[in-house]
Cyclohexanone monooxygenase
Amino acid sequence: MTGTNRLNRPPLDKDALRRKYAEERDKRLRPDGNAQYLRLTGRFAPYLHDPYTPRTERPPRTDHVTVAFVGGGFAGLVTGARLKEAGVEDVRVVEKGGDFGGTWYWNRYPGAQCDTASYVYMPLLEETGHMPTEKYAHAPEILEHCRRIGRHYGLYDDALFHTEVTALEWDAARSRWIVRTDRGDSFTASFVGMGIGPLHVPKLPGIPGIEDFAGHAFHTSRWDYAYTGGDPSGAPMDRLSGRRVAVIGTGATAVQCVPHLARACKELYVFQRTPSSVDVRDNRPTDPEWFASIATPGWQQRWLENFTANQTGELPDEDLVMDGWTDIARRLRARIAAIPQEELTPERMMEAYEECDFEKMEEIRARVDALVEDAETARGLKAWYRQLCKRPCFHDEYLQAFNLPNTHLVDTGGRGVERITSTGVVAAGAEYEVDCVIYASGFEVGTGFTRRSGYDMTGRDGVRLSERWAQGMRTLHGVHVHGFPNAFLVQPTQGANLISNIPHNLTEAARTIAVTVRHALDHGYAEVEATREAEEAWVELLRSGPGRLIGGPDCTPGYYNNEGQEPGPWDWLNTGYPYGATAYFAHMDRWRRSGTFEGLDFREGPCRVAD
Ligand code: NDP
């Protein structure tokens, strides 16, 4: 069964679908928004323990480096790589995990896999000469690729692992940053980069009684293989055969690990608040001959640009990746081509888009009926919202897992788990006794940058980033912040804001940082900072766009639409370049090539700049 069964379908009742979407959304709305979730502190702090790498002792660092980078995930790796390519040898990555990898260091749950085609998702493939073994690579290969980048660019030499930055302070007298960490380090850096990742602080649902559970429990991003047996490469979890397990959450993580748990547990209860849309995965090994034919010079950049253009609805002539992310664009292209030129208004285009979305989601719902044997379970697994309201999922075994006699969907009808007791989970009016609760409850997204980074950097004149951003994030290009010289952000917001392929945002930011640092070093500038005017102009430009939310207020709640809450001033500025991701990348390419560094002020030495 594929997701393209378009035969014998009755015509769409668009009004009925709109009504159903609104009803389902209303069931899930709750007033507490992001406040419904818990941090892993206090009783839950041990959940953050690194189960993968033993911590080794080392003396504190008190030296000086040219660039310090906070975070050893893709952001730190690609920025480190671009800096090294630009001849900046002295780059120190500081990483809280025990190795490079970021999200792929922590997320080793069974079945973990990238949902975006490896050829565009895995960065620096061309530079490192790696051919992904599958169209959608599994987590161990991606983690190994992170290590490959680290080795290839010599980033291991000076990396500090199992180290969390606790403070970044601008030393104006010496034009450098003082970096302090939880390992007692206090070193200085001429420049700092920050790539803390959008999804790295695990969260738990604030369910009453969650602290009372006496059995075993863990979050999916700290998978406890000592308890479950098995390993990240898919070895069977042989210690679960006599155990009753609850999974709380049915997002992208649960969709990938549930089939593995279903095969291993005595009983598996999957507690669902909102069903994910689960489209066809259709993974396959990479054919080396085919890969050799596409991997010509510049290939990965071409693929990146093509995927982004397709995924963001620019409707280019060609679709290289051809998958579920680009499917709506393919349909839309065909539909729009059929509209006579004189009738091609923005309203007709939006109508065509909605129709394509309805059709797509009808197919995804039909797929549930085709694959899930029990009618009641199938009913519960159907997603009633537009595809990009929630993170789309893709899997060829998730839905079928519910056909196994030991695997039970506990659909809470949008209300979520009611309570946790010392022995189990209470939901939809019944208690389910379990030995283990696995929280597939995701990561903090809608919270502030300084909360998620774990430090509040102090810039020029002692101003903290949280103060500077009290009324919302303000940057130039999503990279520079006025008042914080020689500091760079590597993340999507206020830039391309591209969510379907986060690494594309990161590789572009890395290029910008590398040329900026190179320019400063070549010309002996001790400081570089975004001017207030340039930053203001950029923020004004962002404000002229349609606003921040990826999913609109009509969407069922989730992190794509701020949990359904009205965006506050902070949220409003979590937006992207108004003309779209491709236009942003083109703008930045021109900016870098121009060599004028418009909007940046390069200075020779310590000085105060009037605000
Ligand atoms: P998500 O935030 O997507 O999912 C959390 C789940 O927990 C949701 O189903 C949520 O329900 C549920 N939940 C929260 N509170 C309760 C409650 N009180 N009772 C019952 N259920 C509850 O987290 P994931 O870890 O699944 O994914 C996070 C993101 O990480 C993804 O969106 C994706 O961007 C990325 N990811 C990427 C992957 C890839 O590329 N391969 C794989 C996995 C993740 P509700 O929907 O109602 O809020």
